[in-house]
Write a structure and sequence with these properties.
Elements: H1 8-17, E1 20-24, H2 33-43, E2 47-51, E3 76-79, H3 86-99, E4 110-113, H4 120-128, E5 132-135, H5 139-145
Parallel strand pairs: 1-2, 1-3, 3-4, 4-5
Helix pairs in contact: 3-4
């Protein structure tokens, strides 16, 4: 895979400028990577929205059963599911962002695919829809690599 979806400026803008992340696949299981990343970003001041069919509360935040059921605008959709599901989730993310209406110049609208979640076609569709895309990257590693404030 190329570094096409690993632009440092985009990663920095997403990590520093975003406020709310929807974590698709997040459930109340501290043994899962999604839980660790949600907890890390929450500790850095981000609001997290757990998205899982159980719609359970995770890390004190109420869950949604699907992206369509998310009640608050989000800046980033993080795809913490197997790559086989990334295409469907990306299409749902594109539709979610479309429901927000016109985009302000400084508004972040992004899809983040963590390590080992690679779907070039899904990423291309997201980019064509005007979304920022980061693929095969870990928020914690990128936060440290860019030496962002804690």
């Amino acid at each position: 895979m190329s570094d096409r979806y690993a632009d440092e400026a985009v990663i920095r803008r997403i990590l520093t400028g975003s406020k709310t992340w929807a974590f698709v696949g997040l459930r109340d299981n501290p043994g899962r990577t999604a839980y660790d990343m949600a907890q890390l970003l929450q500790s850095r001041g981000k609001t997290i929205v757990p998205v899982h069919p159980d719609a359970a509360t995770v890390l004190g935040e109420p869950g949604a059963a699907s992206l369509a059921a998310v009640a608050t605008p989000v800046n980033v959709v993080a795809v913490y599911r197997n790559a086989a599901h990334a295409g469907r989730i990306t299409d749902e993310a594109i539709e979610l962002f479309r429901t927000y209406g016109p985009r302000a110049d400084d508004e972040i609208r992004a899809v983040w695919y963590p390590l080992d979640v690679v779907d070039e076609d899904a990423a291309r569709r997201a980019a064509e829809a005007g979304l920022d895309v980061v693929m095969d990257r870990c928020p914690a590693i990128e936060w440290a690599r860019l030496r962002l404030p804690r």
